[in-house]
Amino acid sequence: MSMATTGHLAKILTDNQDVLLEGWLGGMLSRMVRRDKVAEGEIRQQAGRFIQLVVKAVEKDPTYDFEASAWTEVRHLLAEMSAARVRQGFTPTETATFIFSLKEPLFTQLRTYLAGDQAALAAEVTETGTLFDRMGLYTVEEYQRSRESVIMRQQQELLELSTPVVQLWKDVLALPLIGTLDSARTQVVMENLLQKIIETGASIAIIDITGVPTVDTLVAQHLLKTVAAARLMGADCIISGIRPQIAQTIVHLGVNLEDVTTKATLADAFLVALKRVGATVVRAETAF
After folding, report:
1. Which residue has the higher pLDDT, 174 or 62?
2. Rounded (10°) CA dihedral 245, 246, 252, 255
3. φ, ψ (nearest 5 deg) of residue 239
4. Is the C-alpha dihedral spanning 64, 66, 71, 77 positive or negative?
5. In which region does residue 64 sit, left (phi positive, over 0), alpha (psi from -120 to 50) or beta (all else)?
6. Contact at 8 Å (CB) between 210 and 174?
7. What SS3 state is found at 262?
8. What are the residues facing 52 on neighbouring strands?
9. How confident is the model at residue 3 (pLDDT cuts 50, 70, 90)?
10. What is the crossing angle of helices 72-88 and 92-100, to 10°?
11. Domains in the chain, please, with CATH?
12. d(CA 21, CA 163)
């Protein structure tokens, strides 16, 4: 970056802060699809803070190097703002508009301030434009980073919600599975089941696959690993919900389930579990 531009940006931002702020907010809010007073107040506060931090950074760093330590507070503000925009449902374009909308009123002030020195004006517009383009791209990068973090957290929450382990009876757990099993989900299934076995001291765990659309070799291997892990924890597993077509698939694949108790329905598996824990279910006589 050229040292010839040093000081111009900081002075213009400081001397014309109110004019720049109004011009900036006017351009930015006119491009916003959603508008409310709370959002406008928040944006105005962020814009004022941003100008102050940019002035501070430019005074510290005469090279306009956005990666320099002098710009740490500006980067932190933009990252914080981008993460908030993700939670509020803004798009990456709306987020970057926060930066790009300031260029027009800022360039207007630059042209007025440097009207008598066209060479300095051209250099300052180029350097300032590059700096603001870098800051705009930084908001997009932080927006993507924050959104990926939100997506990963939601995926983890969905995994946990889709693998509930419930206690049906004393010493009897049930793990109803719905949807496709993959390696990541199977790992969560195993961890949740083993944790619940530790918490309850259950001796029987029913793995119900009624809601699993297909069973292939990989899914069968995942189930067998889960059964083996539960046995190491002192609990026997019963696999239920094996429909005729799934039974045919398992036989065709040659998967060995001889050591595992299997039942067609969850109800059948529950009755077997009750017998193993010494409980019986007796139909009550209806009194008339």
Report:
1. 174
2. -160
3. -100, 125
4. positive
5. left
6. no
7. strand
8. none
9. very low
10. 140
11. 8-158 (1.10.490), 166-277 (3.30.750.24)
12. 51
Instruction: Give the pLDDT mean for 229-242.
Output: 91
Residue 275's identity, in one-letter code, is: K
State the DSSP string of 171-217. Answer: TEEEEEEES---HHHHHHHHHHHHHHHHHH--SEEEEEEEE-----H
**255, 278, 197: which is closest to 230 by C-alpha?**
197
pLDDT for res 25: 83
Query: Could you tell me what percent of the chain has a pLDDT over 70?
Result: 92
Q: CA geometry: angle at 140 spanning 135 and 144, to 5°?
A: 145
pTM: 0.61
Where b means 16+ CB within 10 Å and e means fewer, 75-90 reads bebbbebbbebbeeeb
Residue 164 phi, psi dihedral angles, 5° rounding? -75, 140
Beta bridge partners of 236: 204
The one-letter amino acid at 287:
A
| Phi, psi angles (nearest 5°) of residue 240 | -120, 170
Confidence of residue 190 (pLDDT cuts 50, 70, 90): confident
How many CB atoms lie under 10 A from the CB of residue 37? 7
Q: How confident is the model at residue 8 (pLDDT cuts 50, 70, 90)?
A: confident
> Tokens 């928040």 label which residue?
42
261 SS3 class: strand
